[in-house]
Each structure stands twice: as C-alpha cells, then as structure tokens.
Amino acid sequence: MYCTGGIRCDIYATILRQKGFQNLYTLSGGVSNYLKSEGPAEWLGNLFVFDSRLSLPPAIYKPGATAKGRPQLAYERSTFARCYICGSQLPELRHRNCANLDCNRLFLSCSSCVKELRGCCCSNCTCAPRLRPVLSGHLRYQKWHIYRDVELQKS
C-alpha cells in the first residue's frame, strides 16, 4: 500500500497487522519520496493531499522529469481519465468537489460540464439551496466548513 507522504500507510499497516494480515509492504516515505528519487515515469494520475489543493501532479516532486521523453499527461489509452458527467476523455486529471455543499462529491469533469452544471456533479445538485460559487480552471474550493460558517454568520 502507499500514500502520498507515507504516514497513513504506516498507521493502517499496523492496524492490519494487528488483525492478522502478514504480507504488508509500505513504500518508505510515501509516493512523494519515491517520485523525488525516481521521477514520474509511467505514473498515471495525481496524488491526493489533504488541503485545498486536493491533488498534485506527480511531476511536482521532480520538476522537469518526464516519462521517457513523452509529455507528462499520457492518458490517451486510459479508461479512468473521463468526465464523470458526459464521459468525454480528459486531457488531465484535475479533481473538483461538487459545488453543492451537501453533496461535495469529488469527481473529474471537463470544462464544458463544469460550465453547464455550474460546478455541480449532476443536474439535481444545481438546484440545491447551498451552492458554492463556480471556480474556473485550476482553482480549488476552500474546505466546506468555511462556506458553512460564512452562511451561519449571515443568519
């Protein structure tokens, strides 16, 4: 198992060992440590982080390194690099949360669907009473409780 920094995996590996699992291996220092030394070659996808960035491309850990001379975004045969809403192929894996505070689904979306559904994951969410503003491009929402707390202060 692996995680971005290695800490969660060490904790969960310990729990799993206590439950009787024997063949557990962790990536020392997490994926971030591996990518710093090995680079992002053949790595598909982003790494989740637990702040407002949500995820980071692997190249951030070793800038300038590419997958054997190819561009970093090599998803041409990928089945998971698709828009959650319309299914179109995506040029990059940039996750976003649904603009509906009560949904907050983490999903991949093309720019057309983001615009059409105002940052929501489905048409039902566009009618929700508590919507965050639509963020374009690579901007990320702040943690959901910030929007909730601002709403509570208004009342």
What about the largest sheet? 2 strands, antiparallel
Rg of Cα set? 18 Å
What is the overall number of helices? 4
Strand arrangement across the biggest beta sheet: 1-2
- Beta content: 5-15%
* Low-confidence regions: 69-74
**Average pLDDT rating:** 79
The arrangement of helices and strands along the chain is HHEEEEHH
- The share of residues in helices is 10-25%
Question: What key attributes describe this structure?
Answer:
two-stranded antiparallel ribbon, single chain, alpha+beta, 4 helices, 155 residues, globular, 6% strand
Q: What features would you describe in this structure?
A:
This protein has 155 residues and is an alpha+beta fold. It has four helices and four strands. The strands form two sheets. The chain has a two-stranded antiparallel ribbon with strand order 1-2. It has a two-stranded antiparallel sheet with strand order 3-4. A hairpin with an 8-residue loop joins strand 3 and strand 4. The protein is globular, with a radius of gyration of 18 Å. About 4% of the residues have low confidence.
